[in-house]
């Protein structure tokens, strides 16, 4: 197994220094030399104002209308544009650069293409639930192709913020709680989106975000601070960023949080010592929306000029959205507070990525010739529906299937109830880029098509997403995002009850609206909203069997509903083809294989709850309960559903683990293998997961850590040998002195199809 962790390198604790890249950056050395010459020559021709202009990243909008943008382009005051997403619009601006500006330095165009551009795939949390790097490669390639064909050069993705916090609304945008899974997903996304070369016609450059540790905001409260030990940081939170950069990501977006008291945007250790000097990153760093200005609120800058001085010295190249760099850098350079070399350095990084995007060869590389723009940007034939349906089906996680209630038969009378059953908007999830809601398939549409001519499907909305007027107002703050049915809760429920009573089985589409799992959508209560809980209670009272279809962007507390429903299918926000994909799984046309990328807690009070926690001195043992042990007296320590969990319509059995040797040495490798058998009656796939534990070390090590996984697809009765190769790096960790070490002794290897039920074997490292 190829490890994402670096070779042993000494870490002076005070500096938090990190290792060198294990692999060279993707750009070939000769290209890099050519690029450096080109950029150096260009910088010599540029005035200070033109260099500062390159550092400005701007969004066209009411504050900066197109006419203002035109004047700014003419004067060389803009480096890049984000949020403009059609070829005709982009072409106008690039034309202005080429026709009006002195040096004709092309703009680059960026957008949040996080899980699709026109075709919307499952949210990243759902993609992670597929544990399928091939599926994620498909998503990355298609997203890049659609984005590039819209004229874009860069995406603000992937987001690789590891998070143990379902209260945080942006859990939806990341790949879950695990370092290794997040690293693999992030790396796959970068490679897929950038392709062989980010300059290619159908590729875009990625910007890994949010650097760093944004997923660890205290209490899951958005934009909050982060305080973390260096061991935790380097072992669990930083590897996904480093892995994405090793995969060649040309950009880094800097996070909005502070890290041990220093905002990331002001953090020279993070952006210069670590990122540039130790990780040798040569691309651009971009501040997040308004982050430079926010240094004043953070209490580290006294005024706007001070904020600019701190940000550029820390290592922020491009300033997103605010005008501060343009306004204050000229004066700061004049007074000597910022050096010309510091501005040159930032401008060089911007020009470097423009070079790597191929823009100096052809400013229109992603636009094509005049007249080639699509006639209808949202034309149906620009979508990739078949791939979206397939990937979405792979992202679904079957949590409960009591007495094999699923798959459903396409016969008799079925009821579909719930506020998310027919919402085209919500199913796309947060950051659905240029996706168009009316092109997405709801569950109601999907089920109707599936049963047409075979069974009767009844439908009732049953409740609003929420009856809480304050939450409704929050969700509809900027646009009417959540439609509020004017009927009373009782009227809505009554209709649903009468529909349920006529049905053999009731499918309930419940969860969160798109805006509940987004940026700035932290929740203190991660249960289903009360209106939906009441609806489920009412349907339960009819005595009809219930299959819950959850649509949501975070781990939820569904403890109560878990006791009420016979079947539970976690579908996240599954995208343009979600309704078809969910329907495929509900009716058994696809067999679910997804596994949870996050732990589902029993209650918000258990948070943070994650599988790879440290042992305590007083572990709780439920078979011998002891008061003075680490637990809550009012709830179990265990999760409702553990990390890595997910059922299938078939059964898989694992043989005991066999090891190629009982001992691993520093230069050697060891193969751990199991035979997986499909012992059920249907073809299906599962994810074989390998965890390691270092039970005795100089510092406490996690009770288990994911180190490898493989998806296997088997026919009924078929078996497959799954082999994982382990080496020293897989056993290494950051010790108390921040050295990357492996300590000799016993290790435990666990292999299973979730993180709890595993085969176990020990070996020695010497
Ligand atoms: C978000 C970023 C996003 C940017 C541009 C910010 O509010 O934090 O993730 O890329 O906006 O849309």
TrEMBL record:
Protein's UniProt name: Beta-glucosidase BglX
Listed Pfam families: Fn3-like, Glyco_hydro_3, Glyco_hydro_3_C
Signal peptide annotation: 1-22
Recorded GO MF terms: beta-glucosidase activity
PANTHER family linked to this entry: BETA-GLUCOSIDASE
Family: Belongs to the glycosyl hydrolase 3 family.
Keyword Hydrolase attached: yes
């Amino acid at each position: 197994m190829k490890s994402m962790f670096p070779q042993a390198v000494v870490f002076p604790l005070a500096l938090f220094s990190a290792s060198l890249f294990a692999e060279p950056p993707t750009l070939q050395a000769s290209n890099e030399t050519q690029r450096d010459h080109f950029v150096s020559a260009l910088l010599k021709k540029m005035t200070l104002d033109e260099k500062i202009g390159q550092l400005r990243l701007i969004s066209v909008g009411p504050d900066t209308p197109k006419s203002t943008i035109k004047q700014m382009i003419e004067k060389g005051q803009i480096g890049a544009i984000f949020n403009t997403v059609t070829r005709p619009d982009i072409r106008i601006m690039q034309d202005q650069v080429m026709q009006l500006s002195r040096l004709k330095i092309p703009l680059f165009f960026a957008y949040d293409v996080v899980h699709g551009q026109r075709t919307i795939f499952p949210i990243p949390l759902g993609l992670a639930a597929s544990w399928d790097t091939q599926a994620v490669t498909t998503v990355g390639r298609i997203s890049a192709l659609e984005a590039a064909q819209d004229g874009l050069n860069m995406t603000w993705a992937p987001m690789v913020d590891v998070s143990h916090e379902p209260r945080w609304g942006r859990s939806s945008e990341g790949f879950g709680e695990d370092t290794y899974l997040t690293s693999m997903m992030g790396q796959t996304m970068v490679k897929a989106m950038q392709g062989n070369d980010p300059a290619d016609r159908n590729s875009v450059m990625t910007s890994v975000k949010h650097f760093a540790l944004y997923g660890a905001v205290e209490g899951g409260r958005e934009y909050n601070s982060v305080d973390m030990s260096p061991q935790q940081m380097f072992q669990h939170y930083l590897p996904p960023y480093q892995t994405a950069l090793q995969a060649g990501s040309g950009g880094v977006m800097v996070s909005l949080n502070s890290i041990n008291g220093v905002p990331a945007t002001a953090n020279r250790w993070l952006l210069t010592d670590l990122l540039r000097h130790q990780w040798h990153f040569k691309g651009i760093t971009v501040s997040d929306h308004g982050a430079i200005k926010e240094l004043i609120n953070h209490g580290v800058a006294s005024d706007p000029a001070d904020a600019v001085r701190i940000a550029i010295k820390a290592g922020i190249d491009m300033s997103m959205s605010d005008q501060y760099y343009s306004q204050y850098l000229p004066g700061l350079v004049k007074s000597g507070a910022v050096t010309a070399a510091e501005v040159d350095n930032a401008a060089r990084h911007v020009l470097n990525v423009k070079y790597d995007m191929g823009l100096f060869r052809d400013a229109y590389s992603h636009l094509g010739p005049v007249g080639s723009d699509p006639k209808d940007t949202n034309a149906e034939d620009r979508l990739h529906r078949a791939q979206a349906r397939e990937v979405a089906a792979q992202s679904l996680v079957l949590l409960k299937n009591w007495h094999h209630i699923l798959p459903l038969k396409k016969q008799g009378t079925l009821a579909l109830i719930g506020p998310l059953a027919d919402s085209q908007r919500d199913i796309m999830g947060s950051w659905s880029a240029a996706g168009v809601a009316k092109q997405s398939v709801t569950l109601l549409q999907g089920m109707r098509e599936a049963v047409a001519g075979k069974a009767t499907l009844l439908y009732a909305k049953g409740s609003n997403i929420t009856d809480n007027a304050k939450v409704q107002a929050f969700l509809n703050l900027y646009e009417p995002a959540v439609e509020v049915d004017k009927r009373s809760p009782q009227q809505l429920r009554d209709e649903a009850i009468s529909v349920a009573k006529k049905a053999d089985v009731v499918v309930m589409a419940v969860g969160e609206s798109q805006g509940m799992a987004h940026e700035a959508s932290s929740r203190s209560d991660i249960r289903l909203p009360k209106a939906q809980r009441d609806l489920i209670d009412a349907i339960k009272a009819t005595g009809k069997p219930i299959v819950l279809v959850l649509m949501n962007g975070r781990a939820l507390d569904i403890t109560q509903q878990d006791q009420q429903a016979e079947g539970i299918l976690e579908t996240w926000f599954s995208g343009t083809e979600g309704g078809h994909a969910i329907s495929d799984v509900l009716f058994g046309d696809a067999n679910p294989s997804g596994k949870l990328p996050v732990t589902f807690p029993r209650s918000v009070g258990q948070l943070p709850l994650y599988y790879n926690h440290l042992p305590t001195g007083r572990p709780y043992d439920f078979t011998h309960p002891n008061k003075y042990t680490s637990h809550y007296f009012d709830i179990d320590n265990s999760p409702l559903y553990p990390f890595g969990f997910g059922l299938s319509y078939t059964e898989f059995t694992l043989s005991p683990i066999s090891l190629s040797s009982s001992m691993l040495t520093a230069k050697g490798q060891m193969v751990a293998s199991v035979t997986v058998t499909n012992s059920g009656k249907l073809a299906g796939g599962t994810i074989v997961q390998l965890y390691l534990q270092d039970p005795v070390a100089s510092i406490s090590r996690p009770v288990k850590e994911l180190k490898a996984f493989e998806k296997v697809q088997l026919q009924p009765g078929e078996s497959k040998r799954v082999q994982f190769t382990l080496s020293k790096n897989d056993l290494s960790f950051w010790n108390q002195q921040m050295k990357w070490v492996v300590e000799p002794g016993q290790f435990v290897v666990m292999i299973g199809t979730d993180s709890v039920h595993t085969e176990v074997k020990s070996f020695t490292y010497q």
